[in-house]
Design a protein that fits this description.
The protein has 10 helices and 8 strands. The protein is of the alpha/beta class. A 4-stranded mixed sheet has the order 1-4-8-7, covered by helices on one side. Strands 2-3 form a two-stranded antiparallel sheet. The protein has a two-stranded antiparallel ribbon with strand order 5-6.
Length: about 300
């Protein structure tokens, strides 16, 4: 994947190496309830790393964006506003910049909505977020309360070693998936999905989560299709690597590997086949409307 010659995003918060007051906690105050954004990778990492996903998910409760005003950001020491200069930091920044440029064009053109980009927070170990404490074991996630993506880049090493995925475009797919949740938020989909989750059963909530996650996969494909048309970013083997990653993080494959059995009603992200299908759908169409997972 081509990225070295692209601009760097200004919407990067590099918190690596920072000390956090109060044990690194940035907890919201107010109502509870697990929201969509935090479960992006919790279940996946739980199964992949041999951790009961309920432990991770239980520690990552989210609140409605209506409680945003009650959030108190934790004090941070040694904060720097300088952009990252290391290889991985520059890669992340370049990919975020590409998503900004693509969504800045296609969201107004296809949906009549101005795109407001999220910030991406790079951290190591743990940090505070408006959705609770972000930890490496949680994997990347999007917090709709502060509209930030949280990423410990050690997750990419886990992808390569434990999930069988790897390569620049596979890593970009992960980032673009989280940006896809931000697009869902701007379209009002996350808020509607969360309300529907609260009104149904646990199984209903899981099924809604799957649709939200598959839509983010599709949006990642939409970004890649438009970025490649604009800049020819894709190189030989890139799409295959992203598809391999999508297959590796399907709920069925992870459950079978970790537990020896598959429980479809507990899926929160979709099967391997579903994740590949919706990623490819976005890649082939390049259009937002092709990603309506709730229409099926």
């Amino acid at each position: 994947m081509r990225w070295e010659d692209f601009r760097q995003s200004a919407n990067i918060e590099d918190r690596r190496g920072e000390d956090y007051a109060g044990g690194g906690m940035g907890l919201p105050f107010g109502g509870g309830g697990l929201g969509i954004g935090t479960i992006v990778v919790l279940g996946i990492l739980g199964y992949a790393l041999g951790i009961d996903p309920r432990i991770l998910i239980g520690g990552a409760e989210m609140i409605s964006a209506r409680n945003q005003s009650h959030y108190v950001e934790p004090a941070r020491n040694n904060r720097t506003a300088t952009p990252p200069t290391d290889q991985m930091g520059r890669f992340v920044s370049a990919v975020v910049a590409q998503t900004e440029d693509v969504w800045g064009e296609i969201l107004p053109a296809q949906k009549g909505i101005k795109y407001t980009p999220p910030k991406l927070v790079i951290f190591d170990g743990r940090t505070g977020s408006a959705c609770g404490q972000a930890q490496s074991a949680m994997g990347p996630f999007y917090c709709p309360v502060d509209q930030k993506i949280y990423l410990d880049t050690s997750f990419f090493n886990d992808m390569k070693r434990k999930l069988g995925g790897g390569g620049d475009f596979a890593y970009a797919y992960v980032i673009a998936h989280e940006v896809g949740h931000h697009v869902e938020n701007q379209l009002g989909i996350l808020a509607r999905a969360q309300r529907a989750q609260q009104q149904g059963t646990k199984i209903d909530a899981n099924r809604i989560s799957v649709r939200v996650e598959l839509m983010a996969d599709c949006f990642a494909g939409v970004w890649a299709a438009n970025a490649d048309r604009k800049w020819q970013i894709l190189e030989k083997g890139d799409i295959e690597k992203a598809i391999n990653t999508a297959q590796a993080i399907g709920d069925d494959r992870l459950q079978q590997s970790a537990r020896g059995s598959v429980v479809p009603d507990s899926f929160t992200h979709g099967s391997s086949a579903q994740r590949v299908e919706w990623l490819q759908r976005g890649l082939q169409s390049g259009r937002i409307d092709s990603c309506n997972t709730f229409a099926r």
